[in-house]
Amino acid sequence: MLESRLVIHDYKHDPENTNCCAVCGADACGLHFGVTACRACAAFFRRSVAMTKNYKCKLHHNCPIHKDSRNMCRACRYKKCERLGMQKTNIQFYREPFGHRKLLKPTIKKPIPLSHASTSTSTSNVLDRMSEGYQKYHDNQRSLFFALYPETMFQDPDTVWREVPIVEHVRFERSSIPLVLAMLKEYFSPYDKFTKDEMADVLRDFSFFFGRIDQAYWTTRYFPGIDDKRYVLHFGQYVNVDNMGRFYQDDQNPKQAELFFMPTTHRFVHLTLKFKKLAVDITEAAGIVGAALWREAMLHADFNISFNQLQLTMTELNNYCRKTYPDNPSRFGLLMLILRDIEELIQGLKEAVTIGRLSNDHYKKALESILMIFNKVIQIPLDVVDYGFSSSFNHDQDEISLIGRHFSKSIRNIKLKYGANSSTQWLYGYQDTIYIGEIKVGTPPQTFRVVIDTGSSNFWIVDSSCKEPQCAVKNRFVSKNSSTYTAVNKPWNIKYGTGDASGTSCTESIKLNDNFTVQNAEMGQAVFIAKFFEDQPLDGIMGLGFPSLNKYGEPIFITAYKQGLVEKQMFTVWMHTVPFNSKGKIGGQITYGGVDEVNCSPQISYVPLKEAAYWLFTTTRFTINSKSVLGDWRAISDTGTSLNLFPTEIFDLIISETQAEPDADQNGMYYVRCNKRFSYSFEAHGSVFKIDFDNTVIKIRNYCYLAIEKMDNKVSDGMPEIIFGMPLIRQYCQIYDMENERIGFALANDAGGLDLNCTVFLLTIVLVYIIKQ
Questions:
Q1: How many angstroms separate the CA atoms of 334 and 121, rounded?
Q2: What is the CATH number of the domain that holds 211?
Q3: Which residues cross the membrane (predicted)?
Q4: Rg (Cα) of the chain, in Å, rounded?
Q5: How far is CA 393 from the centre of its chain?
Q6: Residues with Cβ < 8 Å from 742, sequence gap 6 or more?
């Protein structure tokens, strides 16, 4: 008997064989805890985990496990289960030591009994709320697509679909994560009541489920044919399973990548066919999304809250199926079985990504970027207000003339912003577009729209005590309605180019995002604002400059850093173009507390600041068409400036080399033929930075106007001689490093030009914070 045991070899499982138990080789009965297994091995693993067994091997820790000898060594059998990937998180534990096992969470084969859930005939409309949120998510994803591909803005929605490679897919995937987070927080309550850690943990795992559900559902909507080989990745993007080579064409190892993900592809095709045959509607899809969410939440967040929410979701989904499909009593069960297919798909996907990381930096970088977003990033959208570029203009010259007047007016105000008088700060560039962020002040919160300005450090909003006519059209802060308000009563006055703003100071709770609140932040209450502000669509200004520019206290960004809300005293600005009149779309982002690793190249060239007030550095060479000018110019990086402004010697060189002609209206603008391609570069701290043609011109219908202007400032006046605005920032992400008093330049991953006939800019603030592990 002993001899017969010695000749038994350990069972080696073939992953392609789904009929045999991966542990012992006996006949399998399905997927258990993420691994194909027989009932005996599945029960053994469940008991071992549930009863916290601690087995010890009496031999050499490599005992053979076979269907004929699986009980010979429990320690090696359990170790093999773990090695094969059986998931402890899927174990159903006992609630009582005796009697039948009671479920703590639903299984695929046995969902939570409806008798245990709400028995009320009137639902809480949880399912309706989730459906509304899911539809809004899809609408936002459409908007994101048009922001990333502005040339498709005016095409028929049925013609914008494109077969994309994996690089474009991953880019869209990362950009969509904030939209998923916003959907969950607004429409899948009480997800928003979880802690930051819990929300991040749930979102990390749930995103795998949500992505596959979303792709399968929208494939059913857009490509409903059973034989259609196109499968939706995101709105406007699809992959053809008969042409996977094209999907992986930009990968470092296309053949290897296709091999890694082929099993997952087949599972996804199988899942989507079920969606198509059932003709799953959006309410049912939202219900499946909710079930997947609360299942994950039970593992990472408050168990009782998540479990009750899961019961309610499944009850409402069951009632919906019975009411909508009375002739199909098994429909609810079929929908729940879809979750099992998704679990198998997710397990394979995770394995493929893990293997891909070992052999390909593409997967490693993609996963690291996604994890950074899950763990460290919260986005706050900024609205945009356009000046002068309305559809009422019927003639190109009228529009050009108006733009020229705006630019000319802006140039005069530059001297007021950066002049020797330190109390003068002009909000430059807002004649074209104003970047508006929505913030909440006080307890309970009051909502305000503020300009995000990197050229100043003061933060103020209009106070209710302001009785001037220009204040009547603003949202005004009512301090008596806030329990967190503390008066400081320190007077302040800021002189702007077109008038003053003045008032008193206080400390308040400032909420920049539902999960990002700065306590006891110093804020100005404006009791007077100049007439100029009446027509400006803002209730205040939030500055992001150095503390030395602040008139009455500590800048809010520095306060956030001291409170541990951001990791570093730095922020990154990335700009992107979006279609004209696309109000509220993502057109860039500001990453607080670190570097934007998603939208910016990892190669960063840092330039030391000449002084820690404005973001001022020295540039020594300017080159265009191989002709150079040498100097020692004081240069500013300003996110609020629409153009690049140069001294006479550089400006004249550009005009000469490009053969640009002045506009007939004498508005200071010069234009060139759009087919005349050129670029220019400048040198700073030993590095050369090139600005491409698309970022050196402003395309207005059939004209290409130079995005430059002349500025004859003198060093003796304490003014910058060069101001780099949006043309530079569209080309290079700007990393503003306060702590080390330097500015970094990193190529934008999607540098693009400005077309004022179809493009405006927006920003999204990204607040980077530390999640405690």
A1: 23
A2: 1.10.565.10
A3: 751-771
A4: 30
A5: 35
A6: 606, 607, 608, 609
**How far apart, in whole angstroms, are the C-alpha atoms of residue 339 and residue 351?**
18
Contact predicate 673/768, CB 8 Å: no
Is there a single domain that holds both residue 557 and residue 643? no
Q: Are residues 429 and 547 in the same domain?
A: yes
Q: Are strands 764-768 and 588-592 parallel, antiparallel or unpaired?
A: parallel
Cα 544 from chain centre = 21
The predicted model gives 744-753 an average pLDDT of 77
Q: Is 638 in the active site?
A: yes
Q: What integer is the mean pLDDT of 631-659?
A: 89
Please state which of the ranges 66-80, 105-119, 283-297, 492-506 shows the lowest mean pLDDT: 105-119
Q: Is residue 74 in some structural domain?
A: yes
Mean pLDDT of the chain: 76
Using 50, 70 and 90 to split pLDDT, how confident is the model at 681?
very high
Whole-angstrom distance, CA of residue 9 vs CA of residue 69: 9
Chain-centroid distance, C-alpha 376: 11
Q: How many domains, the chain?
A: 4
Catalytic residue among 214, 596, 638, 755: 638
- Domain range for 470: 424-567
Residues 495 and 355 in one domain: no
Q: Residues 64-96: pLDDT tens digits?
A: 888 877 777 889 999 898 888 888 776 765 443
Which residue among the candidates 251, 453, 463, 755 is catalytic per the annotation? 453
Residue-wise pLDDT tens digits, 94-106: 443 333 444 444 4
Q: State how far the Cα of 411 lies from the Cα of 433, in Å rounded to an integer.
A: 15
240 with 332, same domain: the answer is yes
39: domain CATH number? 3.30.50.10
Task: Answer yes or no: are the C-beta atoms of 380 and 768 closer than 8 Å.
Answer: no
Contacts 24+ apart (CB under 8 A), 478-485: 478/446, 479/442, 479/506, 479/525, 481/442, 481/444, 481/446, 482/441, 482/442, 482/443, 482/444, 482/446, 482/508, 482/509, 483/442, 483/443, 484/442, 484/443, 484/508, 484/509, 484/519, 485/442
Looking at mean pLDDT, say which of 166-175, 551-560, 579-588, 643-652 comes out highest. Answer: 643-652
- In this structure, is residue 408 part of a structural domain? no
Look up the pTM and report it. 0.52
**Between the CA of residue 42 and those of 32, 35, 82, 94, 531, what are the distances in Å?**
6, 9, 12, 16, 75
Clarify whether residues 86 and 146 are in a common domain. no
Instruction: Write b or e for each residue in 402-418: b if 16 or more Cβ atoms lie within 10 A of its Cβ, otherwise e.
Output: bbbbbbbebbebbbbbb
Say yes or no: 667 and 539 in one domain.
Answer: no
> Does 318 share its domain with 245?
yes
Distance CA 517, CA 534 (A): 29
In a domain, 627, yes or no: yes
Distance CA 67, CA 83 (A): 18
Average confidence (pLDDT) over 602-613: 89
- At residue 267, φ and ψ (nearest 5 deg) are -65, -35
Largest CA distance in the chain: 105
CB 373 within 8 A of CB 178: yes
**Domain annotation covers residue 735:** yes
Sign of the four-CA dihedral 585, 588, 593, 594 = positive
In a shared domain, residues 184 and 290: yes
Cβ 613 vs Cβ 418: under 8 Å:
no
Residue 341, pLDDT above cutoff 70? yes
Q: What is the 3-state secondary structure (H, E, C) of 62-98?
A: CCCCCCCCCCCCHHHHHHHHHHHCCCHHHCCCCCCCC
CA distances from residue 126 to 218, 314, 473, 712 in whole angstroms, order as listed? 22, 10, 38, 63
